[in-house]
Specification:
heterodimer; A: 116 residues; mainly beta; 7-stranded mixed sheet; 4-stranded antiparallel sheet; B: 109 residues; 11 strands; 0% helix
């Protein structure tokens, strides 16, 4: 069966410090991978998605970046964190690109980031 | 740009009352999915609707996809305290999912 891991679970970082959040998927090959951010009490904002190794699409301009060095590894990074980067970061994966085919997104447990 | 609007933002009901949340997209969607997020947890997939006018049921939950594939609704009959959480719709267009802002449901026992 497939599983998705995210770490760390919680993180408190000072403004201006770097960030690296990691997401890995097990039990599937060539998944679509996604990074979302959820501000407190708000909806999910798509940050990045990837359909393959080295292929990253950015949805919103920001000081965050993403990389996919391996098929089942997705990393979210920042060189200098801002206060506004605080939030709940969720990684997700899905399988199919075909319209109409099952393409459920499976979410990881998330990382709660607080920037002080 | 692509948007999926979801209303209401909050809903407080007495246990046993019905609940409905609505999503509307500015453009036609390939499919629409619904997720539930319990307080402190991550979104969990509930269902996917693909066909125009499709209706699906899961026990007390009824999901509808509009004829134009631009809107959808989730209706819960006779809510229970276990229904508490935030319900999100997510419309798929090409390779991306556009999430609604969610409806937070609170059920008073």
């Amino acid at each position: 069966s497939q599983t998705i891991h995210q770490w760390p679970a919680t993180l408190v970082q000072p403004v201006g410090s770097p960030l690296s959040l990691e997401c890995t998927v097990e039990g599937t090959s060539n998944p679509n991978l996604y990074w979302y951010r959820q501000a407190a009490g708000r909806g999910l904002q798509l940050l990045f998605y990837s359909v393959g190794i080295g292929q990253i699409s950015s949805e919103v301009p920001q000081n965050l970046s993403a990389s996919r060095p391996q098929d089942r590894q997705f990393i979210l990074s920042s060189k200098k964190l801002l206060l506004s980067d605080s939030g709940f970061y969720l990684c997700a994966w899905s399988v199919s690109l075909l319209a109409g085919a099952p393409d459920t997104q499976y979410f990881g447990p998330g990382t709660r980031l607080t920037v002080l | 740009g692509q948007q999926v609007m979801q209303i209401p933002q909050y809903q407080h009901v007495q246990e046993g009352e019905d609940f409905t949340t609505y999503c509307n997209s500015s453009t036609t969607l390939s499919n629409i999915q619904w997720y539930k997020q319990r307080p402190g947890g991550h979104p969990v997939f509930l269902i996917q609707l693909v066909k125009s006018g499709e209706v699906k049921k899961q026990k007390r939950l009824t999901f509808q996809f509009g004829e134009a594939k631009k809107n959808s609704s989730l209706h819960i009959t006779a809510t229970q305290t276990t229904d508490v959480g935030t319900y999100f719709c997510a419309g798929r267009r090409f390779n991306k999912f556009y999430f609604g802002s969610g409806t937070k449901l609170n059920v008073k026992p």
